[in-house]
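Why does residue order matter? Because the sequence determines the fold. Keep that principle in mind as you read this record.
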Amino acid sequence: MRAALFNRFRGPIEVQSVADPVAAPGEVVVDVLVAGLCRSDFHGWHGTDPDIVCPHVGGHEFVGLVRELGAGVTTLNVGDRVVAPFVCGCGSCEPCRLGHHQVCRQQVQPGFTRWGAFAEQTTIAFADVNAVRVPDRIDDEIAALVGCRVSTAYRGVVERGRLSAGETMCVYGCGGVGLACIAFAKTIGATVVAVDVSASSLQLAGSLGADYLINASDIGDVGQAVRELNGGAHMSVDCLGNERTATNSIRSLRPLGRHVQIGLFPNPLANLPIGLVIRDELEILGVHGQSSSRFDPIFEALAAGLDLTPMITARLSLDDIATALPAMASYSTPGVSVVHISK
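Structure:
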């Protein structure tokens, strides 16, 4: 098969012919139809993920057709169109038994702990647990994004953030996850404040329903600016992941507010305004994706009319990954890029 492979971190990405994957017991091989190009893939290529060993094939967000069943797989058939979460849980440990596969201690991550979906074929571990059939009415491009950005946004806004109609939510970082957060918040009936430093990203946020657009590069105290709108946010989410955006997110909250951290920090240690957290009895909540066991409400929302197509701003081929992935360093392309791999 053809795959976009790199032999060293921050090195050239080349589409090469490599051996086809084989389904181990409990796994399936899928023919990849569409993959999302996510900033986490950029971080993996850049060398910030300790699980990646070179040579490596990235890509953790995809939809594909089941090609081969490994021994013991009982719930799937060859030809099924499936998506998988970027965290594939074992199905047996305590978190998995409670339905929280996204924090499984034995988790497997396509594109990180093993080769991923920037290839004509990839594998899904613990397939009976993690491979989720995609309803016919959901197209390939949106289905691919359910594996990471869309499901992560749902987890952050609906499940962890507990956003309700009439509340105000603030989103820091209007990339793929942030845009999906906005879309889910609007279906709930919340007021949305979108914060970014890119005018084009804020324009996309507005197209998905954001009520207020704040360009952080134009404002000294972003937290105060948000608090001046409707008294501050009931919930705020940092989708970018750094000390400044997380701090601003926390400072945007009204008393008893909820801060949701989705964006990964380049440095796991950061200074945050914990005194404010104590004074106003704020909550800090982490999100590490969504369990495959709870993809159905997301598919139902999409089928009911949730339109995420405005998020998609570029459609690429497998060969384009060699330049498109390193170019993510510049933050110059707003929205989401999807990679069409197989027909």
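The mean pLDDT is 95.
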